[in-house]
Amino acid sequence: MTTDILTPRPPLGCAAVMLGLFRAALREQHLPVTQQREAIARVLFESGQRLSADDVTARLGDEGERVGKATVYRTLSLLVRVGLATEHDFDEGFKRYEAQVGQAHDHLICTACGVVSRFQRDELNQLQAEVARQFDFHVLRRQLKLYGLCSRCDAESGRVMGQIN
């Protein structure tokens, strides 16, 4: 059975669970649990989106939190290192981060409008496991990015091409 999943936001209560996991990871690494680290993690966990460091900083500012950009970058890197977030490079000149909830997922990226859609297919997960076994390899993470045109941009480009001929 195949499963296509598009998830706009994490499930309710998920951010609180993720924050608890983050606190535990900080303690395990003998790092202080600070209000700033928690605020940065909370913004990412509650967003359900792929955010840049600038996005996180802006949202914190909107909430009246004053956090330096270096602290945001360090905390986002820490979240990636402990497995609670993933880092993505969509060729925009900066990285985006998203909470790592559940199974691995992949992305479709429209090169015209920039829309990024998330999807998950059981077949890809099975293929990954098969390839890892075949090569005696332990996969830590996967990033599959498919670049192309979304249906809207594809239809618009067809109309433009039709006008040229």
Q: Identify the strand order in the major beta sheet.
A: 4-3-5
Instruction: Choose one word for the global shape.
Output: flat
Content-based structural category: alpha+beta
Uncertain stretches of 5 or more adjacent residues: 1-12
Run of helices and strands: HHHHEEEEHEH
Radius of gyration: 19 Å
Can you summarize the main beta sheet? 3 strands, mixed
- Portion of residues in beta strands equals 5-15%
Number of helical elements: 6
Task: Walk me through what this model shows.
It is a single chain. Helix content is 47%, strand content 14%. It contains six helices and five strands; from the N terminus they run H-H-H-H-E-E-E-E-H-E-H. The strands form two sheets. Strands 4-3-5 form a three-stranded mixed beta sheet, with no helix packed on it. Helix 1 runs antiparallel to helix 2. The longest helix is centred in the first third of the chain and has 15 residues, at 14-28. The protein is flat, with a radius of gyration of 19 Å. It starts with 13 loop residues before the first helix and ends with a helix. The model is unreliable at 1-12 (pLDDT under 50).
Secondary structure layout plus pairing:
Layout: H1 14-28, H2 35-47, H3 53-62, H4 69-81, E1 85-89, E2 95-99, E3 106-110, E4 116-119, H5 122-134, E5 145-148, H6 151-164
Parallel strand pairs: 3-5
Antiparallel strand pairs: 1-2, 3-4
Helix pairs in contact: 1-2, 2-3, 2-4, 3-4
